[in-house]
Amino acid sequence: MRIDLDEIQSYISSNSHILDLGCGEGDLLLHLQEKKNITGVGLENDPNHIAQCILKGVNVVEHDLNKGLSHLANNSYDVVIMTLALQTMKSPDKVLDEMLRIGKECIITFPNFAYWKSRWHLLIHGRMPVSDLLPYEWYSTPNIHFCTVRDFEVLCHERGITILHNTVVARTRIDQYMTRWNKNLFGETAVYHLTR
Amino acid sequence: MPEDFPSNSIGIVTPQGHHFDQPLTLANGYTLDTYDIIYETYGTLNTARDNAVLICHALSGHHHAAGFHSKEDKRPGWWNHYIGPGKAIDTHRFFVVSLNNLGGCHGSTGPTSINPKTNKPWGSRFPTLRARDWVESQKRLADVLGIQQWAAIIGASLGGMQAMRWALEYPHKLRHCVSIAAALKLTAQNIAFNETARRAITSDPEFFDGDYLNHNTIPKHGLSIARMIGHITYLSDDGMGKKFGRELRSGSFQLGTDEPLEFEIESYLRYQGNVFSTVFDANTYILMTRALDYFDLAREYNDDPVAAFSHAQCQFLIFSFTSDWRFSPERSREIVNALLHAKKSVTYAEIESDYGHDAFLIPNERYHQAFRTYMQRIDISQSKKIDREDKHAH
């Protein structure tokens, strides 16, 4: 399981109706179905991922998120989730607005570009950071809109979005410990639980 | 099973018929006092009777969906790629029922049948039908077969529309609805194609206002043109281009020659039209296209598909094909969006294909895999199968 799934689960009430944007192979929805008895559906564009969802018994609808979400009704889901995909969107701010229109709450996770290893990579090597979590070269990466924890909070503030919970997670124990001191420097993945 | 057939074929199948004496009141108010339904079954019904799957055919389909009628049969049933042992609709798991719709021309009561009141073919007097009439007659067939609830009702095109109508008319009588290359209702353009096809038939001098059988003739030319028009709309521009391009069947463009020219596509369409016009009934074609035109899933729900689907209890699987412009992916997305709004369980895949509307019939790895995976997940009782001996007796 990806490192942020446990955090997400803690924000979700049992029996919720969930929309997972960019649901991948459906692991999060399956996990939530088993642990929280949720209903819901994932939107996904990759045929192989869709096949995996069907295999797991996770409802999945083929959809290119960059074509927008205007076809989905206001407040039609308890929670709209997007994990590690916001940075791949053409207009992340609009996606955020749409998520908060469609869902009563939303949960967003994204890779924190201000994580110290990214900063170190750029500082020492003078090149765009490439890591095992983000293994792409700059010219072929789907991640076109990186942001930092601080950037994201500025956006939420400007748009009047309420942050219900937020946390950052890191894979090493020392980093996770240090996030208490500075989330933006030691958090590898940010998790935000938001509402209007 | 003969050794000539591949292991994933059902082999020889035999159509069965059932005569219904109980009058059927149709959507148009007319009552059919008696009628016959011809059908085929593949696989075996389990003792819990919960593994039955209904196949709803499209415009020109019929009951013979899979297997062969004889060893000499050159072509298997129309959906043989998707129905059989180990296939998407796996006859090892499911008891598959495939019928010819009422109004058809392959054995079920239709315009070519004899009207018992006049002892003449029904012809133009055969009542117009709507999808709900088929649902009702299919439900009665289910009663005859002892099927209380279908594991799945599956159809493409007009068949997919019937499957959705089932989900609203008898919500508790199916667990899954698989609707492929279908629509909530036809667009104006789609109705326009159907009307052009109908006009081709009705303007044939041999049509005789639909009573051609009384004149011992058939409107062959009209029906053939109707089929040609339909056929164009079932293929995609790209698919047609790849298959035929501008290849010549005969003649040449050489300077100084004036021999008659024929493009491959002309010859192909003409052939398809001719074959169809001898095996299909013109009145049935008119009846089926009208049923398509009239279909509007949400009409009686204040034109609100979300309100319509709120009555459904089953889970939905929806497929569309990228190059299908007769029932485009956009139409399927309308179905999916309404299902999502109604908070129904839905899975949707848009399959890449060059084959246009016909893609639902044609082998396609992604489509087959997704379809099969979904079907494999449908819960059925693992009870002892009944009439197993019957199946192997063939």
TrEMBL record, chain A:
It holds the Pfam family MetW. Signal peptide: none annotated. Coiled coil: none annotated. NCBIfam families: metW. This is Methionine biosynthesis protein MetW. It comes from Candidatus Endobugula sertula (Bugula neritina bacterial symbiont). The lineage of its organism: Bacteria, Pseudomonadati, Pseudomonadota, Gammaproteobacteria, Cellvibrionales.
UniProtKB/TrEMBL annotation, chain B:
It is an enzyme of class 2 (transferase). Its EC number is 2.3.1.46. The active site is at 157 (nucleophile), 324, 357. Substrate binds at residues 227, 358. It comes from Candidatus Endobugula sertula (Bugula neritina bacterial symbiont). Homodimer. Keywords: Acyltransferase, Amino-acid biosynthesis, Cytoplasm, Methionine biosynthesis, Transferase. It comes from the Bacteria. InterPro entries: AB_hydrolase_1, AB_hydrolase_fold, HAT_MetX-like. GO terms for molecular function: homoserine O-acetyltransferase activity; homoserine O-succinyltransferase activity. This is Homoserine O-succinyltransferase. Signal peptide: none annotated. The gene is metXS. Pfam families: Abhydrolase_1 (PF00561). Residues 51-361 form the AB hydrolase-1 domain. GO terms for biological process: homoserine metabolic process; methionine biosynthetic process.
